[in-house]
Specification:
This protein is mainly alpha-helical. The chain has a domain at 77-120 and 135-160. It is built from 10 helices and 4 strands; from the N terminus they run H-H-H-H-H-H-H-E-E-E-E-H-H-H. The protein has a two-stranded antiparallel sheet with strand order 1-2. Strands 3-4 form a two-stranded antiparallel ribbon. The chain crosses the membrane at residues 52-71, 77-98, 143-160, 166-183.
């Protein structure tokens, strides 16, 4: 896969649809080999490849830096968790897994309520869905949960007055991520993983026809 031809929008869509439950890469691999990119096109391709391959490691890195910034503003921790959830709900895999686990937990106490939390069925016309499959969380459209969690996090950010501290921590975490992704040489595992994810995407699109 030529990462130089992958646009930022394609990368964001891939990160939104990919499964984030995979464990992080080992630290011995994460800090293995660093080299300077030979050209701007090589840097662009390397940056996108590493951001996709080490996505879980970068997520843990940013969260760790944010936690250090939250030590001064404890209430900001709750606001950050709500913000992280509202962003995570935009990922199709996370939204589906979250809804399934919540529904399974509710079913143990109230099967009747769990039945109401099932997503509506998508009408099928001539063997294929009539429209693009919408994402539901606990029987409600995804945007409802995103709006609720975003509003609650905005209120807590305002009350805690810790937004500036968190922004500095977030900037440091993002800077560390970009520096690592720019100088970490993509290895064979990263390329093989890229091909595997590309095959899965093609197969998923084929199965939806």
């Amino acid at each position: 896969m030529d990462w130089g031809n992958v646009t930022a929008e394609d990368l964001v869509d891939a990160l939104r649809e990919v499964d984030w439950s995979s464990p992080p890469r080992p630290l011995s691999e994460f800090f293995s080999r660093f080299t300077l990119p030979r050209s701007s096109s090589k840097w662009n391709s390397r940056l996108k490849c590493n951001l996709y391959y080490y996505r879980t490691n970068y997520f843990i890195l940013i969260v760790s830096v944010l936690i250090l910034g939250f030590l001064r503003r404890p209430l900001s921790i709750v606001a950050a968790l709500l913000t992280a959830l509202s962003i995570a709900f935009l990922n199709d895999s996370f939204a589906g897994t979250f809804s399934e686990k919540v529904t399974r937990t509710v079913r143990q106490f109230s099967p009747h309520l769990a039945a109401k939390m099932r997503p509506p069925l998508t009408p099928v016309i001539r063997g294929r869905p009539s429209a693009k499959r919408a994402i539901y969380i606990c029987g409600r459209p995804r945007w409802v949960f995103v709006l609720i969690f975003s509003s609650a996090s905005f209120f807590l950010w305002f009350v805690s007055a810790g937004l500036l501290t968190v922004l500095w921590a977030l900037a440091i975490g993002l800077l560390a991520t970009i520096l690592h992704a720019s100088f970490r040489t993509p290895n064979l595992k990263a390329r093989l993983n890229t091909f595997r994810e590309e095959f899965r995407a093609v197969w998923r699109n084929y199965s939806e026809l």
